[in-house]
Amino acid sequence: MPKGANVPVPATALRIECGRRLGPGVPDVDASALLLVGGKVRSDDDFVFYNQPAHASGTVRHEGKKTSGGIVTETLLVDLARVEPEVETVLLAASADGGSFGSVPGLYVEVRDAARGTVVARFESSGASVETAFVLGELYRRQGAWKFRAVGQGYDSGLEGLATDYGITVDEPQRTAPPVQLTKVTLTKAAPAVSLTKQGATSGTLHVNLNWQTPPGTSQAGLDLDLCALYELADGRKGVVQALGNAFGSLARPPYIHLDGDDRTGALTAGENLTVNLDHATDLRRVLVFVTVYAGARSFAGLHATVTLRPQRGAPVDFSLDECTVPSTVCALALITNTGGELVVRREARYLVPERGVSPQRTVDRAYGWGMNWTPGRK
User: Is pLDDT of 197 > 80?
Assistant: First the structure.
């Protein structure tokens, strides 16, 4: 649909997809939603994005990113039936991280009926230059019904400028309530580590998510990846948190790490998740987060994966895994160390190839010198 056009929205449960093409030098793009009353948010809570992924009402949820066939997509789920009566508009925006939208090819926003999967509206944005943030579209009420309008309004002041324009408070530490944090940290080979302590993530929880995408035309049926963590406590005790043997751990007692569940479907909306209790960071010496292929694939080849570490306080940390070119069934993802009271996260993204007869767990143990004794397990 052309810029400025509008269409009726016949469904209430919507899946909003913001997409772009991959390519050399293309900046990362982050999608967000703002719930507006009289053209402004009521509070910072009305801003849904990567560092605040769900609205308190349950109306809007940020579902994360996927990569498939050279296209990166980011999804927001919107339930119009639950939008509070005073909310007139749900604004759909995007910001560029590390460049401008003039370098982003194939940018679009697509509105789908979440139940049927049918396309309600699609707007392909073009003609961008120095803009670092865009309002792509908006869902708005008109005479008791909802419509979608293609907007295409750009900002050269980034996500912060866009957010401030709609009444969101950014970077004002003197406020009693903490402002919305718009920053995130992306780890790369050149810059593989970040201090959680210096980022302000010294208490609360640290949520670790692994999401993956199979190659186009490949079925996810039967694919089972397991997120795991080796841990060493300050008192020298060592162990593993994993689905095998139902060793799901605990947040309230040692090891202060809990595997949220076992996603045996490869469902991309959830992926694999575990949580670390940072209130007990002094009890942790090191934690190695890794993933194994339990079933459904012979290696990680073609399984495009993204790791996101989201502290309750401080900026989220994310990174992508490199393409797997070896017959690997275990990949070390991230190493969290506590040295002198400073928590540091290091991107590992290291594919390991088990020797014949050696389990993936024992393989990663040997690679990082954990020194544990292993027995066969099942789930």
Answer: yes
